[in-house]
Design brief:
The chain is built from 14 helices and 9 strands. By secondary structure, it is an alpha/beta fold. Strand 1 and strand 2 form a beta hairpin. Helix 4 packs across helix 7 and helix 5 packs across helix 13.
């Protein structure tokens, strides 16, 4: 309910109600609504040879650039663009899964519910519309933030660019990530950079194994799919009463029931986009196609 008629019958966005999900941008047939792009800022960072700019890539990248583009080719292509290094954000997701699992154990002992904190749209929805439930949002930082802190610890002077499917991450980067995340690109914006630089990821020679660095587990990669966070967090908490819900309308319906006491859970994973992050507004391929690619990636990572 963030959209309302403004002056001259031009629709306006109410910032107090907006959860930054990007649904209105996807729905508008005229392309009249857009998020502020940071492409120019990223180009400036990449052109400055005195800077070391790192790409933090969300696990939902799987399948976005076709079946030929695996992680080694993606790393090669991003380095051609000028990134000094490429880090999978699923590494941060591995950490988040363990930390939220500990939180769940503590909350269960206290008889309280726990909501995941990795989806900024879901978190915004709780904060703005369900203040009593917002108190139960996990205190663990998102995978983007955790990964950024990991990189900063090793390279304090590096500039960090998050690349993912999510428009809400732009807001999160400006708030929680202020001074840490320098820019956020969607997969669509990354495509624009690749085209401008004449870089075809499918034609890039994959980097050598020693250039890839530490890789995440299947659980971390699966954070990109609805239910992935729940699986990682509750792996050792089989007796917990849990629920995974994706899509803002579905999230609202469930949260309303929980707020009224009609339904009770111990852990709820909420994702603002249908299907999870692979259904985000900044994606390039159908959610089903992305899901198959993600499944293949998790199988190869064990």
């Amino acid at each position: 309910k963030a959209l309302h008629p403004g002056e001259n019958k031009i629709t306006e966005v109410d910032g107090d109600k907006c959860v930054e999900c990007g649904a209105c941008i996807e729905a508008c047939p005229f392309g009249a609504i857009s998020e502020r792009s940071e492409i120019l800022q990223v180009i400036a960072l990449l052109k400055n040879k005195e800077l070391s700019t790192m790409a933090l890539v969300a696990p939902s990248i799987c399948g976005q650039f076709g079946p030929m583009v695996d992680w080694p080719r993606l790393v090669a292509g991003l380095k051609k663009l000028g990134f000094a290094g490429v880090v999978p954000v699923a590494l941060g997701a591995d950490v988040v899964g363990k930390l939220e699992s500990r939180e769940l154990m503590e909350r269960r002992q206290e008889g309280q519910i726990l909501f995941n904190s990795c989806c900024p749209s879901f978190k915004n929805l709780l904060m703005k519309n369900y203040p009593t439930l917002a108190l139960h949002v996990s205190q663990t930082k998102s995978p983007m933030m955790v990964t950024a802190e990991m990189v900063q610890a090793d390279a304090p002077a590096a500039k960090l660019v998050f690349i993912g499917p999510c428009l809400a991450k732009k807001g999160e980067a400006k708030r929680e990530g202020s001074g840490l995340i320098d820019a956020v690109l969607t997969f669509e914006e990354l495509t624009a950079l690749l085209v401008a630089a004449d870089v075809n990821l499918a034609e890039c020679a994959p980097v050598a194994e020693e250039e890839i660095g530490l890789m995440p587990t299947a659980k971390g990669i699966n954070f990109a799919h609805a239910g992935g966070v729940l699986a990682a967090v509750t792996g050792q908490e089989n007796g917990a009463k849990t629920m995974a819900v994706a899509g803002l309308r579905n999230c609202q319906e469930l949260l309303t029931k929980i707020a009224k006491g009609a339904e009770t859970y111990e852990f709820v994973e909420g994702m603002g986009c249908e299907g999870g992050c692979i259904g985000g507004p900044g994606t390039l391929v159908n959610t089903k196609v992305a899901a198959r690619a993600l499944r293949k990636a998790t199988e190869s990572n064990g």
